[in-house]
Design goal:
The structure holds three protein chains of three kinds.
Chain A (H helix, E strand, L loop, with lengths): L1 H36 L5 H6 L3 E2 L4 E2 L2 H32 L2 H16 L2 H20 L9 H26 L2 H9 L4 H12 L1 H17 L2 H6 L17 H10 L7 H35 L1
Antiparallel strand pairs in A: 1-2
Helix pairs in contact in A: 1-12, 3-6, 3-9, 4-6, 5-6, 6-9, 7-8, 9-12, 11-12
Chain B lengths: L18 H44 E7 L19 H11 L2 H10 L7 H13 L2 E5 L2 H6 L1 H11 L4 E6 L3 H5 L12 H32 L4 H13 L4 H15 L1 H4 L17 H25 L3 H9 L4 H30 L2 H6 L19 H10 L3 H39 L1
Helix pairs in contact in B: 1-17, 2-4, 8-12, 8-14, 8-16, 10-12, 12-14, 13-14, 14-17, 16-17
Chain C lengths: L24 E12 L2 E12 L3 E5 L6 H7 L10 E9 L2 E2 L7 H7 E4 L10 H11 L6 H11 L3 H4 L12 H14 L4 E5 L7 H14 L4 E5 L3 H7 L2 E7 L5 E8 H6 L4 H7 L5
Parallel strand pairs in C: 3-8, 3-9, 6-7, 7-8
Antiparallel strand pairs in C: 1-2, 1-4, 4-5, 9-10
Helix pairs in contact in C: 3-4, 3-6, 4-6
The chains are: A mainly alpha, B mainly alpha, C alpha/beta.
The structure holds adenosine-5'-triphosphate (ATP) and magnesium ion.
Adenosine-5'-triphosphate (ATP) binds next to α1 of chain C.
């Protein structure tokens, strides 16, 4: 009898994850339904207009999406080249000793809470950008600073996933390349990287998904007000930043504000879920080739 | 294309560089290779520089000169030559009565009666309400060290009544004191206690569930559709942004389950926390957040246990559960514990979901149970960082040092624990 | 790129020539020892490889055949912890000299591995890549076709050159690897048991191919198959493990002589299958 109780508990534990997903979908769906059903917003306006001002009943999500797009793009411009370079260095060039020294450093970078990165963006990166580009060009809150620091945050994620993919490429391919008289660079860039491409792509996609969902850095450094701008030195609030700001205040249930964060959350959930699924598909494909 | 049937002469020969041309070609390729090698190395160095800059910046903000001005100098508050720090409770209360208006005294009394306040609390009140140290300006460490004279001259000129002193924002008082709206007196005790409460309950909930799910998936689940869905689902949940969990927690734990999370159904009826924005809600939210991480790590640890161990146990007639409990789990434990520590580290640093779930903006009373209002260290850092004044930045810097120290000791603890555990297992077998 | 039209033709090697060149000897190893960490895998081997001939290296498993073969194009450099003692002269210059570039050595001494290892690129790219990085200028299509024809693979793949090389069968992959190696027109081709994973028909194709190639190239082949060595090679080297498991050269000479009238008792035992 004891064993069946235990088995029941184990099954329940496994089922919790399903319940969590259902909970997320149900909660986001229900409140979003209320949001769109309130008569104040319709889906077309939500998805296509560029003013988000709940006070005057304007709910166009584009400024928030655009800011998320800006920070994510800047972050990836930093994280992808750096992360891939670090991965190539670690897997193809570094000696075992250098690797054992560098990998913990990257792990430390990856383990620092994001709120600390937010602080870093606001108190270090922003002043740095302002001293480089001029105080009248760069606003105190801006998407560039948040994006760059987010890139640093995501760098270890991309480099470690890419390095895993690169190291999984069999030795024999490198030998084949060297035996043709290839240099180390030609071997690394033209043989090993293409062979690991689907694994590396998966790393990039996970990085993008992470950047889109990242909250504290943008909440602290990107700006506290929706703005539709493509200028990276201007303040603009992202989807996640908006959710945090709105819910940080005293939010009354069933207000349109309260419902709106669920609608934004739903969009966020779908974007990141899709990216993660695509990324897993790439990883799967990579595994099929080499395992 | 006209290539003969059996080519033995080499029609396409001589188009590859030979001899000294070959050498020059290779030399050129090596040059390109060196440039790129340098770039790869540089990228790696950028990572190290980023980490250094981050730490430098935090330390730079957490120490430095400040210009302080007291409304009432503590020296004038000595009673019969006994300095302020050594006065008794009653003497401190009388000082308060002397300097603070009746209305404020009444309000303080109604918050918590003076009779119930500790001496420390009253001492804090004297500092906040009577001495009222005001930090007029603060400087960063590097400036403080290299431009001390200029700063001193500046103070003499602009704030003649202020005193210039070197301040370590991270100091024992900072750890001991509760939150305060006066930067000079603010501390992180409430935040640290809040973090500890939240994390403890998170682990209490998430560890058994995570381990249970891992055991289920690795040992019991057959390879059918349902179980594959569960597995895929867990992997996908691991990639859901943390703020989504915050939204889930807000709707489910704070709102729908309010009677439970505010403690009303347990008869806890604290009017100050009569909503669901409690330690418990935060913990449950974080538990859901770290669960996928815990499960995946525990699964790996269990999978690493060799088959032979299980077969040996079954051969002795043990049941499935006995085998798992006595053989599989003990040898998987080091891995499971490491995964758990990773999950705790992740949970300790989480900010966004807690803000959404409703960590309070200002808590000066220690949390005392699952149904308390709470704030946590990262939330406190977030709030201080969001304030425009420099002093709050300094406070945030000091709080970050505390948080990083906490994370560091946690990870060190994990390594120690794992080593001891694996030695004990080796000792048994 | 103008450097390839440079008229300052100077075909001699810029490296110091150690002694008068033996016109028939392409590679000469002198006193070669190879270590993996502390373990000596190959012991004091001295051998001269003849130009435009097939030299077979035979011997029991683990005696250091692959290791010896890899010293000829400095592939052992790539194995961490391995080290080579002694001298290996290629066209009269020691390839283990400090200022010799292994890239140039490998460019001129190609290699085919025991297990087929095509790149995960198209068939065409597999052949073209090596030539391209080595500065090939000219009709790439013609080069690819010629190399594939030489490797007796053209007819099988000519209609799907853009397909992934990984879709080929094991034997086809191995012939692709040979095509890839000859596309850069090396002076010597090293083959490490190229037919070990192949069926008899594919093996025969590769043997024919070697006889074809040896008109232009010098070939050194490692094999476990006595008949193969006897069939295709002109010279045979027999390696065996010493008491301390280090491989040493027991006998080396024209294949006919080694197989019919071996000078060493151990060679005879091995060839007739009485070994071990
Ligand atoms: N990378 C390596 N690291 C350490 N030892 C090695 C390595 N490669 C080979 N060896 C050792 O060197 C010895 C010779 O190996 P080698 O591969 O040259 O043998 P072989 O004659 O080619 O054998 P086979 O016929 O099985 O291919 C063996 O004892 C082997 O264990
Ligand atoms: Mg071998």
């Amino acid at each position: 009898m004891g064993e069946s109780v235990i088995q029941g508990f184990l099954l329940f534990s496994g089922a919790i994850s399903i319940l969590t997903t259902l909970g997320i979908v149900f909660v986001l769906g229900r409140e979003s339904w209320l949001f769109f059903g309130s008569g104040q917003v319709d889906l077309r306006e939500f998805l296509t207009t560029t003013v988000w001002q709940p006070a005057i009943d304007r709910f166009g999500i584009l400024p928030l999406v655009n800011a998320t797009f800006m920070t994510t793009t800047i972050a990836m411009l930093v994280a992808i080249p750096l992360g891939l370079s670090v991965a190539i260095y670690l897997s193809e060039y570094a000696s075992a000793r250098a690797r054992s020294l560098l990998k913990p450093i990257l792990e430390v970078l990856a383990g620092i809470p994001t709120v600390v990165y937010g602080y870093f963006a606001l108190t270090f990166m922003t002043p740095l950008l302002r001293s480089i580009f001029g105080r009248d060009v760069v606003q105190i809150y801006n998407t560039a600073s948040a994006g760059i620091v987010m890139g640093i945050l995501i760098l270890p994620l991309i480099s470690s996933m890419s390095e895993d993919a690169l190291s999984a490429v069999p030795r024999s391919l490198r030998e084949a390349s060297y035996a043709l008289g290839a240099t180390k660079l030609e071997t690394a860039v033209q043989v090993v990287v293409p062979a690991a491409l689907s694994g590396i792509t998966a790393a990039f996609i996970v990085g993008i998904s992470r950047a889109i969902g990242e909250t504290m850095i943008v909440a602290i450094a990107a700006g506290a007000g929706p703005a539709f701008t493509f200028n990276p030195f201007k303040a603009a609030e992202t989807m996640t930043g908006h959710i945090v700001r709105i819910s940080g205040g005293d939010l009354s249930y069933d207000s349109i504000d309260y419902n709106s964060i669920f609608a934004i959350g739903l969009l966020l959930f779908f974007i990141t879920l899709t990216l993660n699924v695509i990324s897993r598909w790439f990883v799967q494909r990579f595994r099929e080739v080499y395992e | 294309m006209s290539v003969s049937e059996r080519p033995s002469a080499l029609p396409v020969a001589c188009t590859l560089p030979k001899d000294h041309l070959l050498k020059r070609h290779i030399a050129m390729r090596h040059r390109v290779g060196r440039i790129w090698y340098f770039l790869f190395l540089l990228s790696t160095i950028v990572g190290i520089i980023a980490l250094t800059a981050l730490l430098y910046n935090i330390v730079n903000q957490s120490f430095g000169l400040v210009a302080v001005q007291n409304t009432v100098e503590p020296e004038t508050l000595t009673i019969n030559g006994v300095p302020l720090e050594e006065l008794t409770r009653e003497q401190l209360v009388s000082i308060l009565e002397q300097y603070v208006s009746k209305g404020v005294m009444r309000r303080l009394e109604s918050e918590i009666p003076f009779a119930m306040r500790s001496r420390d609390n009253i001492y804090q009140l004297v500092q906040e309400r009577v001495i009222r140290p005001e930090i007029l300006m603060s400087w960063q460490l590097v400036d403080s060290v290299f431009h001390r004279e200029e700063i001193a001259a500046f103070i003499v000129e602009n704030y003649p009544s202020a005193r210039l002193q070197f301040r370590a924002w991270l100091n024992p008082d900072f750890i001991r004191r509760p939150q305060s709206s006066v930067p000079a007196l603010a501390g992180v005790r409430t935040a640290i206690l809040g973090s500890l409460w939240v994390i403890s309950i998170t682990i209490l909930v998430a560890f058994p569930l995570g381990l249970g799910a891992a055991i289920y998936l690795e040992e019991y689940a057959s390879d059918n559709v349902v179980n594959r869905i569960i597995q895929t689902n867990i992997n996908n949940l691991a990639g859901v942004p943390s703020i989504i969990y915050g939204i889930l927690g807000l709707a489910v734990f704070v709102r729908a389950l309010e009677p439970l999370t505010s403690g009303v159904i347990f008869g806890v009826n604290d009017p100050t926390t009569a909503n669901g924005r409690t330690v418990l809600s935060a913990s449950l939210t974080l538990a859901l957040l770290v669960l996928p991480l815990l499960i995946i790590n525990a699964q790996e640890a269990i999978r690493a246990v060799p088959r032979s161990l299980r077969e040996g146990s079954y051969a002795l007639g043990a049941t499935k559960w006995e085998t798992i409990w006595h053989h599989v789990l003990p040898s998987a434990m080091p891995g499971v514990l490491t995964g758990t520590i990773l999950a705790i580290s992740r949970a300790i640093g989480e900010t966004a979901p807690l803000v959404v779930v409703g960590a309070s903006t200002f808590v000066s009373l220690d949390p005392n149970g699952p149904f308390s209002k709470f704030t946590t260290l990262p939330v406190q850092i977030y709030q201080w960082t969001s304030r425009p004044q420099d002093q709050f930045r300094n406070l945030a810097g000091a709080a970050i040092l505390v948080l990083l120290f906490l994370l560091l000791s946690l990870n060190a603890g994990a390594v120690l624990l794992r080593n001891r555990y694996s030695r004990r297992i080796q000792g048994i077998s | 790129m103008t450097i390839f039209t440079d008229t300052m033709a100077n075909s001699s090697l810029s490296l110091p020539i150690m002694e008068p060149r033996d016109a028939d000897c392409v590679i000469e190893a002198r006193g070669v020892n190879v270590y993996y960490g502390d373990f000596r895998a190959v012991k004091d081997i001295t051998i001269k490889i003849q130009r435009r001939k097939i030299t077979a290296i035979i011997g029991p498993s683990g005696c250091g055949k692959s290791t010896l073969l890899r010293t000829f194009n400095r592939m052992n450099d790539l194995i961490p912890g391995s080290c080579v003692e002694g001298e290996v002269f290629f066209e009269g210059c020691n390839i283990y000299d400090r200022d010799v570039d292994p890239v140039e050595v490998r460019r001129r001494i190609g290699m085919v591995f025991q297990k087929p290892n095509p790149f995960p690129k198209s068939i065409y790219e597999n052949v073209a890549w090596g030539a391209r990085i080595n500065g090939f200028r000219g009709d790439m299509d013609a080069l690819v076709e010629q190399s594939l024809r030489q490797a007796a693979l053209w007819d099988e793949v000519k209609d799907h050159l853009r397909a992934s090389a990984l879709t080929l069968s094991g034997g086809q992959q191995q012939r692709l690897c040979i095509a890839r190696a000859i596309a850069i027109q090396p002076e010597v081709i090293l083959m490490d048991e190229p037919a070990s994973a192949l069926d008899p028909i594919a093996t025969l194709k590769i043997e024919d191919l070697m006889r074809e190639l040896v008109r232009d190239y010098t070939i050194i082949i490692v094999t476990h198959n006595m008949q193969e060595a006897a069939r295709v090679s002109d010279y045979t080297a027999f390696l065996m493990m010493d008491k301390d498991r280090a491989g040493m050269l027991v006998e080396y000479g024209p294949t006919d002589q080694v197989f019919t009238t071996p000078r060493d008792k151990r060679t005879e035992d091995y060839i007739t299958g009485r070994f071990g």
